[in-house]
Design goal:
The complex is a heterodimer of chains A (about 130) and B (about 400). Chain A has helices at about 30-35, 85-90, 110, 115-125; strands at about 5, 10-15, 20-25, 35-40, 50, 55-60, 65-70, 75-80, 100-105. In chain A, the strands form 2 sheets. In chain A, strands 1-2-3-9-8-5 form a 6-stranded antiparallel β-sheet. A 3-stranded antiparallel β-sheet of chain A has the order 4-6-7, with no helix packed on it. Chain A contains 4 helices and 9 strands. Chain B has helices at about 20-25, 45-55, 75-80, 140-145, 175-180, 185-190, 230-240, 250-260, 295-300; strands at about 30-35, 35-40, 60, 65-70, 95-100, 110-120, 130-135, 155-160, 165-170, 195-200, 205-210, 220-225, 245-250, 310-315, 325, 335-345, 350-355, 365-370, 375-380. Chain B is globular and about 65 Å long. Mean pLDDT of chain B is about 95; it is low at about 1-10 and about 390-398. The chains are: A alpha+beta (about 130), B alpha+beta (about 400).
Chain lengths: ~130, ~400
């Protein structure tokens, strides 16, 4: 699965569709850049979202960041234990650190996102 | 506000660097523009830096703060005529917190808050005075003070760029710096009372050491020549690391001072602030004194303020931020958040706010509008954090 994960420029990752549903999280790079995460607001299950729409908030000691939907679709599940275990975002981003599951309107939207090499090129060009 | 007393802040085209700037950048400091200076906001984790300062010791580069000397036979009397805090009774080695005010048609113009000090007297017995002011206000405060200098008898020199200042804060800070000083100097540093200072040789370099800081912890601030800054910083850090200490950025300094309930110019405190409403009455001495803005401050002291400074305990992980509206029982706006953050020592979010006096009693429950959410908060006394007794108490002077 890790090989096929795709990334949005806003640092969310999304898994391939399995059973009509894809899993979304944020990259280890984003967690490292934010540091000191203390609060997370998750979206409501059942919410219909458009790609690029804010679906939640991640707050560090210094600032609040939006979490964006990488593709359009419906939120079908959220990781409700995550806000009390934000360390999972950095320690196990593709496992316990998953954030939401989304039923994409058009699975082809996922293929149009950055593959791992393209994402690594993107973050390599950003100042730390 | 009168333009003549508050010239616009300069807009530097490139960031200023302290003598430690390159060290920070080379050691993982995340550099940001702070008041025109290229400063580390953090190295790795603000929370870790904050907690290391509370439990052991944290090093902070505060060289961006303005350091002025005021010397000459008229220095003490002139400062007495310029500052809200009495300077006349100050003894060598003593520091006082004061405001720098201007006289203007407006209610009062607070140019800055500052520490005024009296260093050891010159050989001929004349006092040598010092001022430490905020980085963002330095140019305009220096310009204002220069405009009020008498023709003779007082020399004002800005030493900011030729010196560095290292805050060594936390329960192990005083002992650590004393241990880097040779016998007599170390004894004198350990014996310093709060808001007292001395000259000393620290890690082999001439320094001024004062038991002052901005974190709510015990500790000292060490001022050295710019050329000695890296050597002194590295010597203090090498001694701090085995104790669980670490270098800290301005992010931790901000969460530390928030927990300690200390106002920050540009946030709680501003040009048109009422210091009595901010709980800063101790910084203003009106008795039998004359200084710029005294008349306006006398009026402010006698009246009921519209907004007073309070502490808010959110009890949540979600933080309020500066500018968030504070809402009263009927949902109307009764004030505004001036500083807010997750408080690492406390384990949840706290904030300072200016609110209508009717909502300022401890235990009052208000709401804060944070983006799309409403967060309940309870009014609590300041500070949020008080260091445990014992560890921070200076030993009896020997």
């Amino acid at each position: 699965m890790l090989k096929d994960v795709r990334f949005a420029k806003s640092h969310e990752w999304i898994s391939p569709v399995a059973g009509g549903v894809a899993t979304v999280g944020i990259s280890a790079y984003a967690v490292e850049a934010l540091t000191d995460l203390v609060f997370m607001q998750l979206p409501a299950v059942g919410r219909k979202v458009k790609a690029g729409e804010s679906i939640g908030e991640i707050e560090s000691v210094k600032a609040v960041s939006d979490l964006y939907a990488p593709v359009s679709g419906e939120i079908v599940e959220v990781n409700s234990t995550l806000p009390d275990h934000l360390e999972s975002l950095g320690q196990d981003p593709f496992g316990a650190g998953w954030i939401v599951k989304i039923r994409p309107d058009d699975p082809a939207e996922i293929d149009a996102l950055l593959d791992r090499a393209a994402y690594e090129a993107l973050i390599g060009s950003q100042p730390h | 506000m009168s333009d003549s007393v508050t010239p616009p802040l300069p807009r530097p085209t490139s960031l200023r660097e302290t003598p430690l700037c390159q060290w920070h950048a080379a050691h993982g400091g995340r550099m940001v523009d702070f008041a025109g200076w290229n400063m580390p906001v953090q190295y790795a984790s603000i929370v870790d830096e904050h907690l290391a300062t509370r439990s052991s010791v944290g090093l902070f580069d505060v060289s961006h703060m303005g350091r002025l000397s005021v010397t000459g036979p008229g220095a003490l009397d002139w400062l007495e005529s310029m500052l809200t805090r009495k300077v006349a009774g100050i003894v060598p080695g003593q520091f006082r917190y004061t405001l720098v005010t201007a006289d203007a048609p407006a209610p009062v113009v607070i140019l800055d808050d500052a520490l005024v000090s009296r260093d050891s007297d010159a050989a001929d017995g004349t006092p040598r005075m010092g001022l430490v002011i905020n980085a963002g206000n330095r140019e305009r405060v220096v310009a204002w003070l220069r405009s009020r200098l008498p023709a003779t008898g007082v020399d004002l020199v800005d030493h900011t760029l030729e010196t560095a200042m290292i805050a060594v804060q936390g329960p192990k800070g005083v002992d650590l710096v004393a241990g880097l000083s040779s016998g007599g100097d170390g004894t004198r540093i350990r014996a310093l009372g709060n808001y007292r200072g001395t000259t000393a040789t620290v890690a082999g370099h001439a320094a001024a050491v004062s038991r002052t800081g901005y974190t709510g912890e015990d500790g000292v601030e060490v001022t050295v020549a710019a050329a000695d800054a890296v050597a002194v910083w590295e010597a203090i850090l090498a001694a701090a690391l085995p104790l669980g200490g670490r270098s800290c950025g301005l992010g931790a300094r901000d969460t530390l001072r928030l927990e300690a309930g200390m106002p920050l110019y540009g946030h709680e405190l501003g040009a048109d602030s009422d210091p009595f409403a901010l709980g800063l009455a101790l910084a203003v001495n009106l008795e039998g004194r004359t200084f710029p803005g005294r008349g306006a401050l006398t009026v402010l002291k006698a009246r009921q303020p519209e907004r007073v400074r309070i502490g808010l305990d959110l009890g949540s992980k979600r933080s309020a931020r500066e500018g968030n509206p504070v809402l009263g029982g009927a949902g109307g706006e009764i004030g505004v958040v001036t500083s807010g953050s997750f408080a690492p020592t406390i384990g949840h979010a706290v904030a300072m706010a200016l609110v209508a006096p009717a909502f300022a009693s401890e235990g009052t429950v208000v709401e804060i509008a944070i983006r799309d959410a409403r967060q309940q908060a309870r009014v609590v006394g300041l500070p949020f954090y008080r260091r445990p007794p014992g560890g921070g108490k200076p030993p009896a002077a020997g």
